[in-house]
Fold alanine transaminase.
Amino acid sequence: MKGLDIHDRPKKLRGSSHSRNPQSSVFIPIRFLNTTSVDPSMASDYSGTPVTLDTINPKVLNCEYAVRGEIVTLAQNLQQELKENPGSRTFDEILYCNIGNPQSLGQQPITFFREVLALCDHPAILDRAETQGLFSADSIERAFQILDQIPGRATGAYSHSQGIKGLRDTIASGIEARDGYPADSNDIFLTDGASPAVHMMMQLLIRSEKDGILCPIPQYPLYSASITLHGGTLVPYYLDEATGWGLEISELKNQLEAAKSKGISVRALAVINPGNPTGQVLSESNQREIVEFCKKEKLVLLADEVYQENIYVPDKQFHSFKKVSRTMGYGEKDISIVSFQSVSKGYYGECGKRGGYMEITGFSPEVREQIYKMASVNLCSNISGQILASLVMSPPKVGDESYESYFAEKDAILSSLARRAKTLEAALNSLEGVTCNRAEGAMYLFPRIELPKKAIEAAKAANTAPDGFYASRLLDATGIVVVPGSGFRQVPGTWHFRCTILPQEDRIPAIVTRLTEFHKGFMDEFRD
Amino acid sequence: MKGLDIHDRPKKLRGSSHSRNPQSSVFIPIRFLNTTSVDPSMASDYSGTPVTLDTINPKVLNCEYAVRGEIVTLAQNLQQELKENPGSRTFDEILYCNIGNPQSLGQQPITFFREVLALCDHPAILDRAETQGLFSADSIERAFQILDQIPGRATGAYSHSQGIKGLRDTIASGIEARDGYPADSNDIFLTDGASPAVHMMMQLLIRSEKDGILCPIPQYPLYSASITLHGGTLVPYYLDEATGWGLEISELKNQLEAAKSKGISVRALAVINPGNPTGQVLSESNQREIVEFCKKEKLVLLADEVYQENIYVPDKQFHSFKKVSRTMGYGEKDISIVSFQSVSKGYYGECGKRGGYMEITGFSPEVREQIYKMASVNLCSNISGQILASLVMSPPKVGDESYESYFAEKDAILSSLARRAKTLEAALNSLEGVTCNRAEGAMYLFPRIELPKKAIEAAKAANTAPDGFYASRLLDATGIVVVPGSGFRQVPGTWHFRCTILPQEDRIPAIVTRLTEFHKGFMDEFRD
């Protein structure tokens, strides 16, 4: 990690939320700032070029993606300021708590996974004596196994459009071991992370703005962005904050009926479990109700299960929607479920590798052909990501040389994440006007803030959403980047922010101090 | 490579184009076969599930992608047959000449590139003594340099949505060295291969079917597929086969006017140089005319330059469209050019790594923000692909430890490709009724076949395009997979196929023999 450890410098922390440098004010009402430092007044100079905001696809214009939106651009500008003017602020580095990007905050990759990837990247060293000294025996063995599954051992070749068959077999076995029900490698589509898989399903299902997708509110903005880009309608269903972000079937029914009455044909229900940004884990009984609802209403169940390994409380467990539907007696031809999984989350956190898969069940052969065709237009996903997806679904087993170190690494990460979630949750709940549900899973806390009227007025004056105002002030005063709740949508009139639990554990106390002092200062400034 | 070397078994080659196994007949008129072996009659059993061909996005249904279409599924079935019944055919393996996938046909990766990738995947070994014995000194040095460019050295973290800044700097320097004109890392968007970059531009530019994109005919079907998926109109311009696939400005003008008269607003001109599937290399004077045309007609120039390193004739050279426009005095604000580059092509052929970039110039800051936002919805491209894209734009230099071996590997691949192109071109031109333009660049030959009337009638009876009929028969008789010209579009009434020049050189004589004997048999069967 670059920058100084804020834990070492409590004396520099200050509670004031005032910017020391008015010129770097973060309250300018620009929705998406350019990544280059071009003076906006120069825009007219481009009158000789053909593309303008008036002539681009309006779906692109309307699309929003808050997780990497304005707040991140402000953070990048602030980072640049710190680089050019070290000491200009009360903090020395920007802490990106806006996005589930564990390794950017110092989480180390699982050694076994990286050993195998390196060997598959450069198989020429597999037979060399030095390699035995550098790599574990089982990583060498696994690399040989994987290479044998790749036609011609060509890790640099395009694969089958669904991904390498042998790797899909491994993933299907992993799913079987997890669920206790059969899985078929022909149902697996390997993708560059879960996002392209979600896009593919939206592209398949959405014909026009009359097609709707039921999405939780709050939701991960990939869903709203993807629905907008594909020209459909997001049909919201609200999670109940009062019951730990409960998913009520009555709410699903009401929203479905409301959509139907507006002429919207609802095609699918998206469920994120464990929840993002909300961190709840669904109970099995709730999942059964959801399956029943999809079955009855003939909806595709889009099951975002990328946080399946991220569960931090003993009273909750992950169950895949496919498993739940099978335990209910529903088979392949009874219900359509797409399960999304990613190498970016879990204890592995390999976001940069862009690996993932979707398991599609309950689609007719002719519809599957169309999904296959869509996959084939982009040829295939990256092979390292494919290999990694197979590894996370079949990690070392008891008796393997790497098992003990693998398990120790995994356990250290997951138990630390659980502790961090608890500490941050308690800290947030101790703040004036802040309430925060339990982070049962995933990588986020989504606290609610009761903002004083004066703060809401100040935000209005700055032409910013109140939670955006709060997040901007927090960033400006502490260097901590969180995403305003409005980026995920929320019950109108309520305000939240999403904060990851990912900063390294030794930094958590300083973050709590910074956050607490900032919040106190903010409330002192704006309290009604 | 798996399978037996066909070169060793000329005695088994036969000229007959008759299938020995009628049950494996390849002439069934199915456009896209399922990858799973589900009996189509079972489809009705899915009546309990919500998604049918009638209710999916019709843009998906209308999209075609021949390079991985029917012919590949037929080949996969045949491969399965060979596996289950070895010796059932006159050949022992399927030769995939349908797609530019060099490593699938035995091309070896460039050692230096793979060394650096492996070290970046597992940086823990960088400081180990054994590593010195396994890796070249400059690959170790380069890995350190690259890791220093990645915030926190985290190769497993999401990067900036455009890609890691330091890698983009390297790429910009590589472009500057290539072109002799400045390049800006803020103009670079790293992507998972060139395909997602092309999709991104289509998504930006296409608002409805009234928006058109000028595309060469024949064209690489990514363009037609992407335009269909985004709901636009492909405005064709025909390359002139008689003048070596010449690109005539008068043809561009005529087609532009014709489109305008139908109410189509033409947004962009796609040019593939070197050509795919046609293999021609544009002259600089022709490129200047094209730039002038785009400037005058206010079209975005979509420059597919992924084959920039694949040039096989001494009288042709690659010039980027950006360079050509700069030599004409056009600057950043005069013309909009998007240059696509990929790690999949060139002498590296790293298709499975899914790396590439687009360099966008001549877009206003507010339009660039929108492109940035689109990139951010998918978070970032895979980091190994990003690293590789930087490596191909800055390979070892004279004096580096790896330089000599790197250069030898590169030169061996490119000079062998040139010889293969020449041999295959000559062989094709020697066939009755076949004419084939020179493969000046890229990885393909696109011969024209004068099909006898009887063959056209037989194709009609089999409900197949005549060139699809020819390609199916070729596959069935020889195991050689080529793509029918109709997959790329062609002048109506003419018939072609695309064949890569990628099989390893020692196999070329046997391929020529197989192809020649098949063609003779085919003509004997159908000659008018």
Remarks:
- Chain A touches chain B through 119 residues (CB under 8 Å).
- The two ends of chain A are 41 Å apart (CA to CA).
- Chain A has 17 helices and 14 strands.
